[in-house]
């Protein structure tokens, strides 16, 4: 899964919501929700109360990557190459964008003790089918372009399955 970050600027403040120096400190985290979005289905990284493995698994956290899109424009992307949902059903994915730094009086960025949530978004509801009904889509041109630029993604382009 690929997510693109668009940084908007405040007309009133004359500054960006996120300054260039903060980009290395941005992370996106995926979460799983019920079809209607009312219930969080995340159980954390630990085995759940009933010794059940987490429903959503794979690399659920990504830092920002500077990559060129198919039109030759540099963009900010979060890459989630191996996210999977364990059980069939209908779900929504949530994405939380956080900043894990703070600035001192001189503008120097330091790792913060706690992250600051900048925004949350959700996907439309989607279906997860049983494994025997699943057919993986071929890599997209955008995915192939990112792999050629050195993005660390699982890919059918390399013989080892990972580049």
TrEMBL record:
The keyword Transcription applies. Its main location: nucleus. PROSITE patterns: VELVET. Keywords: Nucleus, Transcription, Transcription regulation. One of its GO terms (cellular component) is nucleus. Transmembrane segments: none annotated. Residues 1-156 form the Velvet domain. It is found in: Nucleus. InterPro entries: Velvet, Velvet_dom, Velvet_dom_sf. PANTHER family: SPORE DEVELOPMENT REGULATOR VOSA (PTHR33572), VELVET DOMAIN-CONTAINING PROTEIN (PTHR33572:SF15). This is Velvet domain-containing protein. It comes from Candolleomyces eurysporus.
């Amino acid at each position: 899964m690929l997510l693109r970050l668009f940084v908007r600027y405040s007309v009133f403040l004359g500054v960006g919501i996120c300054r260039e120096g903060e980009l290395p400190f941005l992370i996106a985290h995926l979460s799983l929700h019920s079809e209607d979005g009312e219930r969080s289905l995340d159980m954390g990284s630990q085995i759940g109360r009933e010794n059940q493995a987490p429903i959503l698994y794979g690399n659920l956290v990504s830092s920002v990557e500077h990559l060129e899109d198919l039109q030759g424009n540099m963009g900010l992307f979060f890459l989630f190459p191996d996210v999977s949902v364990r059980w069939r059903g209908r779900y929504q994915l949530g994405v939380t964008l956080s900043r894990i730094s703070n600035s001192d009086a001189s503008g120097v960025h330091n790792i913060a003790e706690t992250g600051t949530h900048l925004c949350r978004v959700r996907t439309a509801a989607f279906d997860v089918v049983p494994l025997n009904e699943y057919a993986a889509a071929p890599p997209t041109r955008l995915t192939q372009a990112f792999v050629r630029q050195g993005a660390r993604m699982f890919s059918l382009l390399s013989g080892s399955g990972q580049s």
